[in-house]
Design goal:
By secondary structure, this protein is an alpha/beta fold. It contains six helices and six strands.
Length: 184
């Protein structure tokens, strides 16, 4: 009986192992498959951090709170947006008080800098070009565009990926500058 069950199970296990290997899972990772280097627990923590900060920013001032984009990677928080100068220090203070935050980095723009049709077109081209770059896992790279100024955020494998992503963004027509907060 045990021999019959084993002979039926082994081919199924071999087939499953083959499928995993071909799909890029199970140790033979194909880099074009979306992959996040963080653990599931860290991703959940980062999501909780982002949500908590955003909620508290909105409670303080709905307009400026809405304008702040909040990113968190392994407890490293990035605040990006067009906000009044009077909102910037309180936003940082709010972020620093959230459990799990290891650091807070800001990239502020003056109100009226962006959110134009040109920024939307640039953003689309940056995303498209990052996706087309086979050497990069563009699913790891977030970006914001304000007045043609591109801000790159996220986690990548190595410094070479940071350099490549910056070069790709700079190569898009209409881009005035690129600031990278990519974490290798």
């Amino acid at each position: 009986m045990k021999r019959r069950i084993l002979s039926a199970v082994v081919p199924v296990l071999l087939l499953a192992a083959s499928v995993l290997a071909l799909s890029g899972l199970g140790g033979c990772a194909v880099y074009s498959v979306p992959k996040d280097e963080r653990t599931v627990g860290t991703m959940v923590d980062d999501s909780t951090i982002r949500t908590t900060i955003k909620s508290e920013l909105m409670q303080r001032d709905a307009s400026d709170g809405y304008a702040v984009k909040v990113y968190s990677y392994d407890g490293r928080v990035f605040l990006v947006g067009e906000v009044q100068s009077s909102f910037r220090d309180p936003a940082v203070s709010i972020a620093r008080k959230v459990k799990g935050v290891r650091s807070v980095t800001t990239h502020w723009f003056d109100p009226g800098t962006g959110n134009t049709a040109d920024d939307l077109a640039i953003s689309t081209k940056v995303r498209t070009n990052l996706i087309a770059e086979k050497a990069l896992s563009s699913t790891q790279i977030d970006h914001e565009v304000y007045g043609g100024h591109v801000v790159l955020l996220g986690m990548v494998r190595a410094q070479a990926d940071v350099d490549r992503a910056v070069a790709v963004a700079r190569g898009v027509g209409g881009v005035r500058s690129v600031k990278s907060y990519l974490i290798p």
